[in-house]
Amino acid sequence: MARWLTLAACQTGPVQRASTRAHTVARLVALLEQAASAGAELAVFPELALTTFFPRWVLQPAEIDALYEAEMPGPVTQPLYDAARRLGIGFAIGFAERVMVDGKVRRFNSMELVGPDGQRSGRYRKMHVPGSTEPEAGTTVHLERRYFEPGDLGFPVFDYGGTRIGLALCNDRRWPETYRMLCLAGAEVVLIGYNTPQMLSEAPALAHLRMFHNHLPMQAGAYQNTLWIAAAAKAGLEDGQALIGGSCIVAPTGEIAAQALSLDDEVVVHRADLDLIAACQAVNFDFARYRRPNDYGLIVERAGPPAAFTSP
Amino acid sequence: MARWLTLAACQTGPVQRASTRAHTVARLVALLEQAASAGAELAVFPELALTTFFPRWVLQPAEIDALYEAEMPGPVTQPLYDAARRLGIGFAIGFAERVMVDGKVRRFNSMELVGPDGQRSGRYRKMHVPGSTEPEAGTTVHLERRYFEPGDLGFPVFDYGGTRIGLALCNDRRWPETYRMLCLAGAEVVLIGYNTPQMLSEAPALAHLRMFHNHLPMQAGAYQNTLWIAAAAKAGLEDGQALIGGSCIVAPTGEIAAQALSLDDEVVVHRADLDLIAACQAVNFDFARYRRPNDYGLIVERAGPPAAFTSP
Q1: Of B158, B175, B299, the CB nearest to A311
Q2: Is B52 left (phi over 0), alpha (psi -120 to 50) or beta?
Q3: What is the ipTM of this complex?
Q4: Fewer C-beta neighbours within 10 Å, C or N terminus of chain B?
């Protein structure tokens, strides 16, 4: 029996710091309604979808807590979960997670998967946290490591009504290990949210490649791991910083099946043929037959190339 | 001081089974001369550059040995090594390797790296050997596993006059682990040879994607591992089978810097800026800082996704 899952990438335009959370949630509900009316069964929202991308600033301790969610859903985000149940559509959403563990505050850049019943189906905490804890000379300020610990949940894969779903956030999508780990854990679909600046002051000569470098690793990740990918950007001029769009749905062939054309709130939908996964595996990627896990040791043994090189 | 290395991808047209090895070597020498005259310092030839892609047939035992090299260089291939020394240009070449080990014949799909002094600088044996040992119903005959053992040398990286060179062959380029292993072993440049049929009878609906699936993983592999890649196809109608071309030089940005347009003997050259590697690492890929090798365990623990899936 053919298996299908209609996916929606719900891009948002900027979420300014001055916006209220309630206003932002109403925008997300409108996007979810649009996705559902186009037949989507599962939608993805951006990373940090509820707030501005605040790691672009050094903030005072007193300013920080208001930017995190202490509970999901909370009173202000509950309408989104209610909409999911009302519309019968699931979603994944990126948010700043603030959690008490053993009496200590911990903060993660997280994504939550919610089923069409409005209940949580899974949670992911961003594994590849880029940037720094303090501003670094000559680079665009990017303080994700100031505001978030690296994820501590690994690369989990969740059952979603018979389809296996993995989650990833922004910088995770640049690393081939993200897709491979999710593939080996059984994922068929990966949902990604991101915030990607158009300009980095450390690399003005590479600025024209930002969209290419957005799509390239996702297309290769989809192809090399026979995955469907739905990826949603927060786009446009957010609190003075230009973010790229390019939200998309990528097939296991690596082809972009659908993509956003604006830098604003926009939904792209594709009816994903899940059987294409097996068809693609049959051509080149019979993993169990051809991969050589015993020969990939360096991947888990060292983080980067050796400082000193010795020819064998 | 800026570092440069001028690379050449020496694509060949078909090498028919009826061709003599001496004729083929003369073609390769002509390509090497063309590469050297364009300023190239290092050239790459295709996989199995000296013969037809014979794994497309079931051959009789008595027919096989003539298709392998028992020594490199041998009397017939020596002119290529002499040309390298005369021209002051190194090269890598794919060939069928037949070697006696402990009184037993072993066969590998190999690539040899030769310095501008005409001496061997390194050898690689294809790690990801695709296909089967017997024809399989419904698929294009592809018997690499009949004729070659999987490589037993891992993913070595060789010093080439101060630049670190990795080698890979054909199917290797589809697997992200190939590039990652070479990156982590210190490679700056990867030389790839390939033979890729245009049509696979098991996947007629994907035939139009063969060139996309050639370039996509190399572009992503270059970008995600900050590598230069030079890749050479054996192209054109070889003994009745159409092979794609698309030989190319890919930058660490993932951009194709130069590519072949024909299905014939053709040289593409690019003066590679080796400093671009560090520039690309500075933007997204500070490996030592951001990779999480302790969390990639599945990559070395299992070959493929689990048969039975359990949600966490």
Answers
A1: B158
A2: beta
A3: 0.97
A4: N
